[in-house]
Amino acid sequence: MDNKTIRELAEELNVSKQAIRKRLTPEFRKRFAVTNGNQITISPKGVSLIYQSFTTHSGGNANANVTGNQFANSQTQVTDFSHLETYIQSLENQLQKKDDQLQQQAEAKDLQIANLQKLLDQQQQLLQLEQKKNQLFLEEAKQESEQASNTKSHFFKRLFSRS
Known about the structure:
The chain is mainly alpha-helical. The chain has helices at 6-13, 17-22, 26-32, 44-56, 68-77, 82-160; strands at residues 4-5, 33-36, 39-42. The protein has a three-stranded antiparallel sheet. Helix 4 packs across helix 5 (68-77). Mean pLDDT is 81; it is low at 59-70.
């Protein structure tokens, strides 16, 4: 069975094009119909569903009206899992991409942590060096101050000594 247009189906079933269009719900169009310009082409699976809706629910009378709920019920009876397989495959692909993205983010965070740890170590080393320099400077200043005070006291002793 090939793809068929609404006109071809209407002629084969001896119904109006409008009767066919009533059965083309948005879900049905998404799954079984393709629009080429102004022409709607229905897949073989969709054609068989439309045939079913006219023959099953009308007792063989092709002119009988079928409600949207009756047509939807006939659609649910058909077990076509190919669209589910493609949907599952697309979800698996999305999960894989998300896993890859999370892995890349984790690696980037690990690198950032390593860099921050290195910077922290460098900062601690610089702080230790500065503390040592300050300690040496204080010791030198203390020694100079002791020498200066010793020198001053000798100077004043000599100056004011009574000899």
